[in-house]
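Everyone, describe these C-alpha cells:
***
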Amino acid sequence: MTQVHKDQTKYREIEEVLALSVPFGDSAYLNQNTWSRYADRLEMLSGCVPSAKALGDAVRHASDETKYCVIGDPTVRNSINSCLVHFRLKHASEAVAQAAEIIQLTRQQVEKHIATPPLQVGVTAVSRLGQGAYDAWMWTDDRREDPNSRYFRMMVEKELGPAHLKLLSASSSQIEMLAKGAELLRTLLPQLANSALSHTHLVALLSHPPDFTSVTNPQIPGVIFLSPSVLSTPWKVAEYLLHESLHLKFIDAEHTHSLLPKGYKQKDCLIRPPWRRPHTANPYLWPLNRVLTVAHVYTALSLFFLIADAQSSELAPVYGSKIDGLPQLIQQSLDRAEFLTGQLQLNSDHLGKAGQHFVRWLDEVVGRLQPFRRPMGCYLHLVSDLYDTEASTLARVIARVPSEKLLSEVNLAEMGFNRTTLIDVLSEMLQNEISCVHEIAEKSGQPLEWVDLLSQTVRQERRQSSAELATLILGTRALVCQSLQKIPAGRYTTVVAPLILDDLLLSSSRYVEATRRHLNS
C-alpha cells in the first residue's frame, strides 16, 4: 500500500469519527435530541402560550422530515426560546406577542402536515445548496412578507445590527457559487459534509464593515451568515460552509448535553488564544464553550485542508485553483486545535462530564492528524504566527503615513503614554519586544547574538521616514519570529515560564492599539 493510499485511508477513518460517532459526531442522534428538547420546552409553556402544548404534541408525533423542517426553522426555535425566557425565567421580552403568534401559526402548519420550514413558506422560488430535501435554502427578498419574515428580520437587526451587519438578498450568481461550494465540500468530505450541513437550515448574506467574513449566532439558530467576499471560489465557499455549519452543530450539542457543569460562570475560567491580539475593546478572553466550539472547528478544518491539498489538482478542472497557502493553513489549524484541546485538558475541572468526553474525543482526532505533539502549554509558535501577520499589516499602514505625521506629537495619556511622537511609541514597542524575546531565549538556553546590535539600531534611528520605519518594523518582527520558532518546543511552556510571554503579548498590544488609534484619529 502506497503512503498516499495509507493517508487517504487514515483521513476517511478520521472523517467517520467526526461525522458518525455518538454522541458528538452523529447528526441524526443530535437532531433527535434537539427535537425532543424543543418538544419538552413547548410542554413547559403549556398554560402560558396558546397553541404551545398542541404544537409540542404535534411535533412528537410528526415525521422526521416535519420535525427537521419545523424545529430547525430559526423563527420557530427563537420564538420558543423567547417565550420560555419571558414566562418561565421572568426576563421580559418585547417581542413575546410576535413569538407566541409564530408558535400558533406553526401549530396550524404542522397539523396540516406541511413539511416546510415556516420561514420558507412565503418564498416565491426556493434556492437550495443541493437537491436533497434537507439541504439548506438561501435567503432572498423574492418573497411575500409575513409574520415569520418580519420576525426573522427583527432577530437579525437585534442580534447583528449593533455590529453594522445587514441582510442582503442573494443574487443568482451568488446562489450558484454557494451551491458549487456545497457540492465541492461533499466531494471532499462526503460524510462530514452531510453531517455538518444537516445543522444548517438557512444561508444568508450580509452587508458588513471591513474584515467581516462570516458568523453564526446562538440566538438565530440554524442560520449561517456570510460576507459576499467569501464567495470568490468554490474552495473558499466550501471552507466557510464547513466552518460555520460546525458551529451550528456544536450549538445543538451544547443544548442537549452537559458540556459545562451546573452553575458554571464565564468568569470561572477564561482562555486567551495567543494568535489573537488582545486590546482594550476586546481582550480575547474566551469562555470554555467558545474554546470547545473553536477547537472542534479547527480539528475538522485540519482534515478539510489536508484532503483539499491531496485532491486539488484532480478537482481543479471542475472547481478551479485550490486555496492559496494550503500547507500553512494545514499546520495553523492543527497547531490551534492542539493548543485549544490542551488548554481544555488543563482546565477539565471546569467542564461537565459531557464536556470532558468531548475534549477526549477531539484530542484523539488531533493526535491522529498530528502524531508528533508539542508539550502541554507550548505556544511560542502561535505567537510567532501573530507577529508575522501583524507586522506585515502594521508595516503597510505605516508606509502610507506621511513622514511628518510620524514626527508630530501625539497625546496618548489615557493609554499610559507620555506626550511623544509616533516614532517614539513604535521604537519603544520594538525595544520592549526585543528585551522580552531575549529573556525568553536566555531562559530557554537559546542565546541571541543579534539582540545588542538591533537594540542599538532601534534606539538610534528615531527619525526615520515612513518607509524606513516600516522596514524596521518588518525586520525586527521577522527576527523575533525566527527566534521564537528556533526555541525547542519543550524548553518554553506556560507551565515553566508563563509570565514573560504574556508580558510580550500584552505590552505589544498597548503599542499597536495606540498606533492604530492615533492613525485613525
